């Protein structure tokens, strides 16, 4: 699948299963504080929550948070520092 197909597939699944509203931002990296610890989530590297490879990062406008996708979906807070492609 190319990048547009991955986005479309994820968008449809996340919208249906989670009721999320995914923006079209192309996010490469997030930095945020979780339980007093600096966490960094970057596409292509291990998810800081579970160590699984991080495939994509999406912004959920309805929940005002970020979704870290790859193996599972974990959530990063809305006040994360964002780096886009």
Supply database-style keywords:
single chain; 85 residues; alpha+beta; 3-stranded antiparallel sheet; 1 helix; 6 strands
Q: Indicate the proportion of strand residues.
A: 35-45%
How far apart are the termini? Answer: 19 Å
Query: What fraction, in percent, of the residue positions are helical?
Result: 10-25%
Tally of helical segments:
1
Low-pLDDT segments, ≥5 res: none
Main-sheet strand order equals: 2-1-6
Gyration radius from CA atoms, angstroms: 12 Å
The class by helix and strand makeup works out as alpha+beta
Mean pLDDT, all residues: 93
- Spell out the helices and strands N to C: HEEEEEE
Domain module tally: 1
What can be said about the biggest beta sheet?
3 strands, antiparallel
- Overall geometry comes to globular
Q: Tally of extended strands? A: 6
Task: Describe the structure in your own words.
With 85 residues, the chain is an alpha+beta fold. The chain has one domain (3-84). It is built from one helix and six strands; from the N terminus they run H-E-E-E-E-E-E. A three-stranded antiparallel beta sheet has the order 2-1-6, with no helix packed on it. Strands 3-4-5 form a three-stranded antiparallel beta sheet, with no helix packed on it. A hairpin with a 2-residue loop joins strand 1 (27-34) and strand 2 (37-42). It is globular and about 35 Å long. The two termini are 19 Å apart.
Break the fold down into its secondary structure elements and pairings.
Elements: H1 3-18, E1 27-34, E2 37-42, E3 56-60, E4 65-70, E5 72-76, E6 81-84
Antiparallel strand pairs: 1-2, 1-6, 3-4, 4-5
